[in-house]
Every structure is written in C-alpha cells, then in structure tokens.
C-alpha cells in the first residue's frame, strides 16, 4: 500500500496544482483524499490542521509580520535610505548599493522577503528612476536584495524550519544565517555596480550627499531594532516569540511617538493588513500538516528517501540534486510551502548523510531566497515589478545576473559549512 498510497497522494496534489488550485487548498485536498481512500481516520483532518498550527514557536510568525508592517509604515526605510546614501556617496551604481544595504537592514526587522522588497521599492524606485536607472533594472536589484530578508535574522523561514526540524533551534538558525546573509548581500552588490558602470546607469544622479551625522541621527531608531531583537535573544532576556512582541511594541513607539508618522487609525490598518498576511501563512501551514500526516502515515516520504539512498551515489551528488530541486521549486512556490512539502522527504536524507541540521536549514533557506527573485513566478519580482510598472519579461536580462551571483554565494555555503556554523558555535548554540 505504501507505493500506491504515495502515488495517490502525490498524484492528486500534482493534478490540483496543474489545474491552478491554490497551494494551500491543493495540500489540504490531497491529504484529505488520501486519508479517506486509505481509511486513516477522517477525524485526523481537523486534528492535524489544529496541531499543525498549535505550536508555540509559530506564534512568532504573525507577530514578526506585524512588526515588519509597522516599521514599513513608520517610515524607517526612508531614513535608512538617507543614511545609506550618506555613507555610500554619489557615484555610478551607488543607488543600487544603497538599495541592497537598506534591504539587508530592513530584513533584520521584517523577516519577510516580499514585505522587505515592497518597503524598499516604494522609497528607492523613484530615486533610481530620476538618476537614470531603467525601472526593470531597479526592480531586479530590489527584488534580489529583498530576498536576503529570509536569511538575515529574524527570519520567518527559520522559525518554520525549526518547528519541522527540532534538532535546529531558532537562535542557532538565526546566528547561522548572519554570515550567509551578508555574503548574499555582497554577492548582489558586485553585479549591481558592474552592470551600472557597464551601461552608464546613475550618470544623471544629481543628489547632494547628505551629512553622515545628521542622517545617522535620523536612522538610529531603525538601526536599533535588529540590535534589540537579536541582543535580547542572545542575552536571554526573551525568547524568539517574545522578541517578536518586543519588536512590535518598539516599532509602534517609533512610529507613533518618535517619528509621529502613524496614528491610531494607521495602527488599525496595520493590524488588518498583518492579520491578512498571517492568516494566509498559517492556513498553508495547517493544511500542509494534513498533507504531511497522510504522507508519513502512508510511508510515502520514507519510501522516496530510501529510493534516493538506494541509488548508491555520493553525498555531494545527492546534495546537488536536492539544491537543484529546491531551486526549481522556489521558482513556483513560496518558501513556507516548500518547507512543508519537501522537508518530510529531505529530513531522512539529512539524517542518513549526517548533515548538520543548522547548516542544512540555512543552505536550504538561501536556495529558496534565490527562488524569490527567479522568474517565472518570482514573488519578490512580482512586488517590485508592480511598483515599477514593468513586466517580468523585461527584468529577465537583468535579474539573471543576480541569480547567478547569489548562486555562487550558495555554492560557497555548501562547500564551507563553517560559514554557517562558526557563529552559532561561538555563541554557544
């Protein structure tokens, strides 16, 4: 029954996806159908849905999403752009570097790639267009930079991964993502500057370089956010879930008291928007739990894992195959969905080859970050393209350079696990 059950489960899921069914619905329907056909207990559907989302670490997801939306509305991104412009200066390609640096800092607040890309695009796209950067190029740079948000802590992706892989704690994953996140950002700066100089982008930038100290004073409240969040967790003052609550309170204080860019009516709109985003994420997690229960009960994931192990190929060959699968999946699905669909298959492989779970999680997340700006269904590129009013087709000639650059950084992380593991070890995780 194992082989037939696996084919039934995966076959229904693939057919539903090909007919355009939303990912959450496809996961839930495929799991429910398999449970019903093989008489696994239909009451396991609501139970599985509830237990899938009733996990304490998952409480951090909607709260971090709320924190990201608050900081976006508070005007933190604009002040960070001002500071980055003061530090980087005005030269050919400088605005591309500014966009990447601001996206990296904002990623340390929101933990969400699309939210990061939207916040930076709103501020940077008009400035880059005035300076002579083609909108399609600007949209590509910001979409790629926004992808670093799921690597640089706090990361929603790492929280989901830690729930599915208990051997990897959230603090260890957060620490492990720091160096790869910086490496990813640096890898994006190289093609951004090279392409700008090769094509003469930024020659029309007449912006006066702002005074560094003045810009720093304006951005200090935004810069302190990642320090408070990560420093509090490192010191043991609060857990990752409590850190999310602290981030919300701090963001509300900055927006309503310090910058005074938000009022109580704006706070209501922020709560409504973040609730909608959070509901979508948690719905996917709940319905994917039904799919996961059906797959594990039928033995589908173990059968696939044993099939791969039975090929008698080297661990490196399997690792490259896994990353290729993740890269292709990332072009079509969001990171949370891929975690929930593929980790039941990948975790047995990880344990069989004795790969470090923290390193594997960061590497997997870095791969999925690339998928966020890789056509044809790149979620970050959809966001920035909508702001820039350009088609995804027009960005392909530019964005592929950034895909190649971050893929190079991914290969380094694959080859040198200490790029991930050094900081967690130093911090005692």
TrEMBL record:
Residues 10-418 form the TRAP C4-dicarboxylate transport system permease DctM subunit domain. This is TRAP transporter large permease protein. The keyword tRNA-binding does not apply. It holds the Pfam family DctM. It is found in: Cell inner membrane. It comes from Skermanella aerolata. GO terms for cellular component: plasma membrane. It is a multi-pass membrane protein. Belongs to the TRAP transporter large permease family.
